[in-house]
Fold:
Amino acid sequence: NAGVTQTPKFQVLKTGQSMTLQCAQDMNHEYMSWYRQDPGMGLRLIHYSVGAGITDQGEVPNGYNVSRSTTEDFPLRLLSAAPSQTSVYFCASIRFSSEQNTEAFFGQGTRLTVV
Amino acid sequence: KNQVEQSPQSLIILEGKNCTLQCNYTVSPFSNLRWYKQDTGRGPVSLTIMTFSENTKSNGRYTATLDADTKQSSLHITASQLSDSASYICVVCWTGFQKLVFGTGTRLLVSP
Structure:
């Protein structure tokens, strides 16, 4: 039961570096999303995808890119890291179904520090 | 604007005591409301789900209530344990738009 696999768990970047956070799910969900979690602010939506080949921006998309070539994978790319991107990042795979069954499944998180 | 507000922001209780966490939302219409538990360094995990027609649902020592008229939900933890120390996040599903609206969470610390 892998669920949502997110890597890496920790990462330190220098300002200006780029990197990709990986996310894979094995539940065949169409909907996947990326969030960042900062103290006192809760989870904020960065980008989301409603299926392979379809992505859209969330509330805080600047500085991040995503792609969705397969149902399983939804990587998040930081193009040029900035200290303001220091945060904990969560990938989620969401089952939008009947009332009882809508549920988000989260990865373990990536703690990113940009120095 | 659809919002979910939680209170208190943080809470410290002694082991064995009960506590209640609050969630007020303005999301309408909504499909369901879930309470998630997030342990330190982990992703959130669902505890309970409430639909529009439900008032109370229990999961062991956790009991969630929902008042759809006042748009309020609560999570009651009975006989708290050290392992209950975590953040508890209220999440409302926004019907028709496939969107989840997150509260900012309540950080609970259970002290021995």
Summary: The mean pLDDT of chain A is 93.
